[in-house]
TrEMBL record:
Entry protein name: UDP-3-O-acylglucosamine N-acyltransferase
Organism superkingdom: Bacteria
EC number: 2.3.1.191
Species of provenance: Cellulophaga tyrosinoxydans
Limits of the UDP-3-O-[3-hydroxymyristoyl] glucosamine N-acyltransferase non-repeat region domain: 21-88
InterPro entries: Hexapep, LpxD, Trimer_LpxA-like_sf, UDP_GlcNAc_AcTrfase_non-rep
Entry-linked Pfam families: Hexapep, LpxD
Any one of the GO BP annotations: lipid A biosynthetic process
Active site annotation, chain numbering: H241
Role of this protein: Catalyzes the N-acylation of UDP-3-O-acylglucosamine using 3-hydroxyacyl-ACP as the acyl donor. Is involved in the biosynthesis of lipid A, a phosphorylated glycolipid that anchors the lipopolysaccharide to the outer membrane of the cell.
Length: 341
């Protein structure tokens, strides 16, 4: 799929300097660009590469002034990085704009779907499920009974959405992700065995939620597991039953949130973080990677360590931890000295 410089300038509302008819069909880093590729310059330290790049088109900020001759066509915009991201989104939409129903696929006769939907081969749509407009269900995906998908939802290949789940508008479920699997609910009996507790609730994803590849979100035991609007989950994350995550919170890969934990709005949670169940984390909390959270966290705190401390306390403690062998030696020497006296 090729785009000309004039087409790209139109999409980005940018100013064109160079050949309006030159076309590109691939993307490249500015230092690795070749003929037929599109790149961008946003970080000043990469400026020398604009004079040597072989990319056909380069997106730059409006205040860029060339000090030497250029072989690349320029598109000047207010923010080169933001415009390049916008172009990537546009390209992704064009590339994935599939419609129609492929064979073989199964759609229950009681299921409904809106306009411009795509249902890929070997996918399954269960009883009484409702799919909105512009929904994309890629091959080998599963949508269970009584599921509601809003407009512009994408379920990539191998994604699974189990029964009674409610998915808002503009949500993305990446490959291998599972929404609505049973929560980890077992109760010990008198013989020391564990009996399964039926998980009768569901999962609710509000609008604009992204669920990364291989991530699992368990259905509630009772009620709902809820991800509020704008939540973004990375790959390989575990969200347990009855968890609630506030608006626009982001969680990085390999993190786990245990049952009934409540996480506030606009939090940033690093990779491999573990959060115990039945605690409350406030709004605008920052949790550093590999931290272990075993207590309630107030809004605005920055946390690190396992068990986690406030960020400042952790750094102060770590200074002493690094010096611990020296401190022990000094204590031993003092004890010997006191013993001699």
């Amino acid at each position: 799929m090729k785009f000309t410089a004039s087409q790209i300038a139109g999409i980005l509302e940018g100013d064109l300097e160079g050949n309006p008819d030159i076309a590109v069909d691939k993307l490249a880093k500015i230092e690795e660009g070749e003929h037929g590729s599109l790149t961008f310059l946003a970080n000043p330290k990469y400026t020398p590469y604009i004079y040597t790049t072989k990319s056909s088109i380069t997106i730059v900020n409006r205040d860029f002034v060339a000090e030497h001759n250029l072989s690349t066509t320029l598109i000047k915009v207010d923010d080169a990085y933001e415009s390049f991201s916008k172009l990537l989104s546009y390209y992704d939409q064009v590339k994935s704009n599939k419609t129609g129903i492929e064979d073989p696929s199964f759609i229950d006769k009681t299921a409904t779907y809106g306009e411009n939907c795509y249902i890929g081969a070997f996918s399954y749509i269960g009883e009484n499920s409702k799919l909105g407009n512009n929904v994309k269900i890629y091959p080998n995906a599963f949508v269970g009974d009584n599921v509601i998908l809003g407009d512009n939802v994408i379920v990539f290949a191998g994604g699974k959405i189990h029964s009674d789940s409610i998915i808002g508008n503009n949500c993305v479920i990446h490959s291998g992700a599972i929404v609505g699997s049973d929560g980890f609910g077992f109760a010990p009996n008198a013989n020391g065995e564990f009996n399964k507790i039926p998980q009768t609730g569901n999962v609710i994803l509000e609008d604009n939620v992204d669920v990364g590849a291989g991530t699992t979100i368990d259905r509630a035991t009772l009620g709902s597991t809820i991800l509020r609007k704008g939540v973004k989950l990375d790959n390989q994350i575990q969200i347990a039953h009855n968890v609630e995550i506030g608006e626009h919170t982001v969680i990085a890969a390999q993190s786990g949130v245990a049952g009934s934990a409540k996480i506030g709005k606009h939090c940033m949670i690093g990779g491999q973080v573990g959060i115990v169940g039945h605690i409350t984390i406030g709004d605008n909390v920052r949790i550093q990677a590999q931290s272990g959270i075993g207590r309630n966290i107030k809004s605005g705190e920055i946390i690190q360590g396992s068990p986690a401390l406030t960020y400042g306390d952790y750094n102060k403690s770590y200074v002493h931890f690094k010096n611990l062998p020296k401190i022990i030696n000094r204590i031993n020497e003092l004890e010997k000295k006191i013993g001699r006296e």
